[in-house]
Design brief:
By secondary structure, the chain is of the alpha/beta class. The chain has one domain: 3-Layer(aba) Sandwich (Rossmann fold). The chain has helices spanning 15-27, 47-58, 73-79, 95-108, 128-136, 147-160, and strands at 3-8, 30-36, 64-69, 84-88, 113-117. The chain has a five-stranded parallel beta sheet with strand order 3-2-1-4-5, with helices on both faces. Helix 2 (47-58) packs antiparallel against helix 6. The chain starts with a strand and ends with a helix. The structure holds coenzyme A.
Length: 161
């Protein structure tokens, strides 16, 4: 049983994230999509809402589970017996940050390998900030996010205005 953890803030999950989940699933028997805490971020969606949304996005994907964790990613991966941490690499600009995290996680959990996957080039420019920015200023984000996220963001927009 090869288990991988795919961590992130997922604020919100995009089609790029989903693409990585699918690719990871081709290599690993189980992929845990993990909502972890990035201390530098104040998410638009609270944790419970992001959990529900990620669950809705991966519904029907066999071998994909969703969880959250407030401590160190390396501890979580070890506790769950994961063999890998999956991260998406979209462009060279991701590299410095990802390299640093991978090295720290390797020191904390030597048995857990960080694996980088490249999303489809269609999503290579995409991140959650772009989606939130389009949402904030009334732009069209509908083709960048899974249907469940689109509905939740539309709803939030209606209740915010
Ligand atoms: N498609 C679209 N967007 C993508 C993407 C893809 N395939 N891959 C990454 N991104 C985007 C995200 O949307 C996010 O965009 P944003 O900054 O505009 O919101 C950005 O790239 C990176 O975010 P994400 O992948 O969600 O990771 P993160 O940097 O928010 O998460 C954690 C980092 C949570 C994994 C890290 O802080 C962590 O491990 N925390 C736990 C505590 C810990 O162990 N700390 C020590 C770490 S060494």
């Amino acid at each position: 049983m090869r288990r991988a953890v795919y961590p992130g803030t997922f604020d919100p999950m995009t089609l790029g994230h989903l693409d990585i989940v699918r690719r990871a699933r081709q290599t690993f028997d189980e992929v845990v999509v993990l909502l972890a805490v990035n201390a530098d971020k104040t998410p638009l969606f609270p944790l419970e809402a992001r959990l529900q949304l990620v669950r809705a996005c991966v519904e029907g994907l066999d071998g994909v589970v969703v969880d959250s964790h407030e401590g160190l990613l390396a501890d979580y991966a070890q506790q769950k017996g994961a063999t890998a941490i999956v991260r998406g690499l979209r462009a060279i600009s991701d590299f410095d940050y990802e390299f640093q995290m991978a090295i720290v996680n390797r020191k904390l959990a030597p048995g857990v390998e960080t694996v980088f996957l490249m999303p489809s080039e269609e999503w290579s420019y995409l991140n959650s900030s772009i989606v939130r920015e389009l949402w904030r200023f009334g732009g069209d984000y509908s083709r960048l996010v899974p249907e469940a996220v689109r509905r939740a963001m539309d709803h939030l927009q209606r209740t915010a205005s």
